[in-house]
């Protein structure tokens, strides 16, 4: 309403702009262009969007401030649309092993950080191939960790011990106990 009052534009201008954009981005529907399949439509959509927004890369429109796992997934999906993708999960698992090897060989903190990031990227790629949301998977894994750790705390309290006084082996025993309880509750 404010822009209308200022004479900048009104609802008809907005509707006209949206219609023009729909027609421009769908020449296979509104124009002479023919496409073979859904993949061709999506590729054409990306090309037109890139041209329209004057982007130098198909990845330019992905916000850097997006949560890291979400951003990594989006980057990989866009790259995959143009053929930069592994064919199967075995190839990705090999890549993960390669990245772990490089991580083990890293000497400086900066190299470790670099290789750790590469491992995460490869894991996100595997999740994408398996149609697993890595953000959701990490949330669920964190919830399991919290639950298991709380079980350790409960067992320590039952034994009148402070966590700091317990050996790792004892805490690990209770961790495994918590995992067993989870498994039996699923059955």
Q: Mind explaining what this structure looks like?
A:
The termini are far apart. The protein is built from 9 helices and no strands. The model has no long low-confidence stretch (mean pLDDT 88). 72% of the residues lie in helices and 0% in strands. By secondary structure, the chain is an all-alpha fold. The longest helix is centred in the C-terminal third of the chain and has 25 residues, at 134-158. Among the domains are: 1-54, no CATH class; 136-186, no CATH class.
Shape from CA axes?
elongated
Percent strand: under 5%
Biggest sheet overview:
none
User: Count the helices. How many?
Assistant: 9
Whole-angstrom Rg: 25 Å
Residue-averaged pLDDT: 88
Helicity level, as a percent range? over 70%
* Oligomeric state as shown: single chain
Question: Could you give the distance between the termini?
Answer: 58 Å
Please provide the count of β strands: 0
| Helix-and-strand structural type | mainly alpha
Q: Helix and strand string, N-terminal first?
A: HHHHHHHHH
Low-pLDDT windows of residues: none
In short:
It is built from nine helices and no strands. By secondary structure, the chain is an all-alpha fold. It is elongated, with a radius of gyration of 25 Å.
SSE blueprint and pairings:
Elements: H1 2-6, H2 11-25, H3 27-30, H4 38-52, H5 68-81, H6 89-105, H7 109-129, H8 134-158, H9 168-186
Helix pairs in contact: 5-7, 6-7, 8-9
């Amino acid at each position: 309403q404010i822009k209308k009052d200022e004479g900048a534009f009104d609802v008809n201008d907005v509707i006209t702009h949206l219609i023009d954009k729909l027609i421009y981005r769908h020449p296979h529907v509104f124009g002479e262009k023919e496409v073979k399949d859904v993949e061709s439509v999506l590729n054409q959509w990306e090309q037109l969007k890139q041209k329209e927004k004057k982007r130098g890369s198909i990845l330019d429109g992905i916000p850097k401030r997006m949560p890291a796992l979400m951003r990594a997934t989006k980057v990989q999906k866009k790259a995959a649309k143009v053929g930069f993708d592994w064919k199967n999960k075995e190839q990705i698992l090999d890549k993960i092993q390669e990245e772990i090897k490089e991580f083990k060989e890293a000497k400086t903190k900066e190299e470790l950080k670099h290789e750790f990031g590469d491992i995460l990227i490869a894991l996100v790629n595997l999740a994408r191939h398996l149609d697993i949301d890595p953000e959701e998977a990490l949330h669920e894994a964190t919830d399991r960790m919290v639950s298991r750790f709380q079980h350790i705390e409960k067992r320590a309290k039952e034994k009148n011990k402070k966590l700091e006084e317990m050996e790792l082996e004892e805490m690990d025993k209770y961790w495994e106990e918590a995992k067993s309880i989870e498994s039996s509750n699923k059955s």
